[in-house]
Amino acid sequence: xxxxxxxxxxxxxxxxxxxxxxxxxxxxxxxxxxxxxxxxxxxxxxxxxxxxxxxxxxxxxxxxxxxxxxxxxxxxxxxxxxxxxxxxxxxxxxxxxxxxxxxxxxxxxxxxxxxxxxxxxxxxxxxxxxxxxxxxxxxxxxxxxxxxxxxxxxxxxxxxxxxxxxxxxxxxxxxxxxxxxxxxxxxxxxxxxxxxxxxxxxxxxxxxxxxxxxxxxxxxxxxxxxxxxxxxxxxxxxxxxxxxxxxxxxxxxxxxxxxxxxxxxxxxxxxxxxxxxxxxxxxxxxxxxxxxxxxxxxxxxxxxxxxxxxxxxxxxxxxxxxxxxxxxx
Length: 329
Ligand SMILES: [Zn+2]
Known about the structure:
By secondary structure, the protein is an alpha/beta fold. It is built from 9 helices and 12 strands. Helix 3 (108-116) crosses helix 4 (123-132).
């Protein structure tokens, strides 16, 4: 059961809005930065109703007279920025390459259709209803960033120094991480996931590892992942170890001639990462990794990848049901 996310203070002027996201798609963390009468958001939720909830909490925490002037969009996935239209008049900052990712991201209409117009008796329809059926995608107009950068951009929100670093391609072609040097906090976007398997659309994993190591190099106290609970440095080191292992597995399974989906099935059968949710997402990450190993420059076929994910999740779910029926009987 999903509980309402709350805005939690992490340090002076820094809050995180963290949904209970374990094993779920689309429930991303957002941030609020406030200093000297000015406020910025790090990402906005997937849908307008959820954004309204986040904004109400953010405005209450920021206090009267503090305007939200800036939205820092970590990357182009809808679950990090489809609420941007609700922050009227704010500057929307992201990397220049984020614009490229938006070109092949499904639209809100396409997502709604995958939830409503697919067959719930088939894996794809079942999977989309299960993971995206909670979201109301109506009324969303995807906003383009109003300010983009490459490399690094230094901003001030009130008197708070904010460093933006372009670390893509990693999770997508254009990923940004937000470093708050004074508070020793990093908002890592989907370069870091906690509790769930990653689903990296771009990769290769080596570049994701490099981005994580760059974050560690800033010696932060806290790292806010794109999804899941806030990590300390040891938590991030554990995540890097998993990324490295997955890259090693990808190389050897690719060399054995497996497809990404076969490789994902192999690692799931081995129960190689027992603590992480959504193992079917390895299909997506391994497909990105295999494209790099093949030196293929095609863009990911999102629908084909989601169909393979759905089949794995569907079969695991029917396996679980068969097991619980057997043990109940
Ligand atoms: Zn995300």
